[in-house]
Amino acid sequence: MALECPTCGSQEVRRASLAYEMGVQKTRNKTLGGGVALSMVGPIVGVGGAVSRGRNTSLFAERFEPPKKVRPFMRTFLTFLIGVPLYCFAVLIGLSIGSNFSILLSGGFGLFCLFVLPFIIFLVSVQKNRDTERKMQDWSRLFVCERCGEVFEPKQFSQKRGDRPEYQ
Hints:
By secondary structure, the chain is of the alpha+beta class. The chain has helices at 16-22, 59-62, 72-97, 100-140, 155-161; strands spanning 13-15, 24-38, 43-57, 143-145, 151-152.
């Protein structure tokens, strides 16, 4: 059984994941350089090198980029690192004002930035990864027509799920 595009009826269809992979190229370049200069002490020789890596994506492939997972621990750690100076700044402001209420309020704000905010960021990131897994399953069922560019989900997949996926 061949798949057909629901819009134009063409059988020139392929998975969106394959269309994405075909439009991505990874590059790696090595560069070496050197130089010689004359100084009062004598000639000076310098040599250097670099490695550059990159990824080129076609406009067609960008349309079919898979959903990306986030790194909850990295986001939490970075939020904690941002919270440390905020905590110190809040405590210093509270101490400079001098009243007990301002010290308590600024200390509470500082502790919120130091502990509660990273915890909230962690929970939000974990939930986002759960949503990403669902979106990844939806993405793996998508096909694209090479003639008209229509993105669709074949009937055999949509009948199993009962509804059409949300995708860009």
